[in-house]
Amino acid sequence: MQIRNMATLGGNLCTASPAAELAPPLMVHDAVAAIQGPNGERRQAVADFATGPRTTILGTGEILTNVRLRAPALSGSCYLRQTVRWAMDLAGVGVAAWVLTDRTGREAAVQEARVALGAVAPTAVLVPGLESLLAGAPPTTERLGAVSAAASAACEPISDTRGTAEHRRHVAGVLAARALSIAHARAAGLWPGGLAPVNGRAPAAASSGARA
């Protein structure tokens, strides 16, 4: 019997589950964790906090005390997940995207962009190389297709009861393009309209088991 109880951001990070759903959103916001221990405080990027399934950089006597993240103007983010069921289930795939634009409106160009993936590798991972794919222009259909391919390539999934490795790799690519398009629209002040089409249609915030 499953029981709902209190949960915390720090607890989710320290559990270090490969499917932890707060790690990808914090990673795309360039979040930094504050760690207190016998030798004082140190800071570490959340992207480097988990070292493997159920393991972290915390040493003996250390605890996570707070997390700080970036949220500048003209930025937007989005988190989407695919899962077998909605209530109290781990994500089969989780994708977070963050975009910083140079202005508002349909012609807003991407200045910075990050996409992080959960439940597709031993730890949550940042998709590399997005700057070369996106910087300096709006996220067109062609550019979003390249983001999708890069996200799929960044996966190291396993097959389990929540999905096969092949399915996870495919879903990660689809959700990465969709989440990045939504994040750009939010940064540019266009949400919920004005999204670049993905696979020939406008991406939805909730579709095929994905939720913002």
Question: What can you tell me about this protein's structure?
Answer:
The chain is α+β, with helices and mostly antiparallel strands. The chain has helices spanning 9-15, 23-28, 130-134, 141-153, 165-187; strands at 32-37, 40-45, 50-52, 55-56, 63-68, 75-82, 93-101, 110-118, 125-126. The strands form three sheets. A four-stranded antiparallel sheet has the order 6-7-8-9.
**Could you estimate the helical fraction of the residues in percent?**
25-40%
Number of helices: 5
- Measured by DSSP, the beta-strand proportion falls in 15-25%
Distance between the termini: 28 Å
- CATH fold field value of the largest domain: Enolase-like, domain 1
Number of domains: 2
Which value, in Å, is the CA radius of gyration? 17 Å
- The CATH homologous superfamily of the largest domain is called CO dehydrogenase flavoprotein, C-terminal domain
CATH class assignment of the largest domain: Alpha Beta
Describe the main β-sheet briefly.
Answer: 4 strands, antiparallel
Q: Would you tell me the structural class of the helices and strands? A: alpha+beta
- Describe the strand arrangement of the main beta sheet, using strand numbers: 6-7-8-9
